[in-house]
Amino acid sequence: MAWVIWLVIGAALIVAEMFTLTFYLLWLGIGALVAALFAWIFPDWLLVQAVAGSVTALALTVLTKPLARRVRASRGYKDAIDDLVGKQGLVTEDIHVGKMGIVKVGSESWSATSTEPLVKGEPVIVVHRGNAVLQVEKWGRL
């Protein structure tokens, strides 16, 4: 039955990845799915399951970074997330200085920070983007 637990953990991590877009949870989720496969084949070898999952997650983390860097450096590559800078959004969860909130830009929700407190419902403009966090300012300030 350990394979079911690994499968649930893997699915939960992959779903969580959809909210963070960092790929780290995706690699951990795939590692948990590999552990589920090993648990199905070797149900009593918990150590083998954990090692197989850990090695898979570590290999994916280490091996995909240079590949991603090479793709981003290639000519003609344009990250769709860069298009968010300059777009208008709406605060959906209050943003306090030094603490993240949530903004909606287009049809997507993003974690966001700001140098000033912003309350739910305020229009904002995206001034910078990190990997999964946007920096926003009050709309009309620029």
TrEMBL record:
Subcellular location: Membrane
Matches recorded under InterPro entries: Membrane_assoc_protease, NA-bd_OB-fold, NfeD-like_C
Membrane topology: Multi-pass membrane protein
Residue spans crossing the bilayer: 7-40, 46-68
GO cellular component: plasma membrane
Matching PANTHER family: INNER MEMBRANE PROTEIN YBBJ
Name listed for the protein in its UniProt record: NfeD family protein
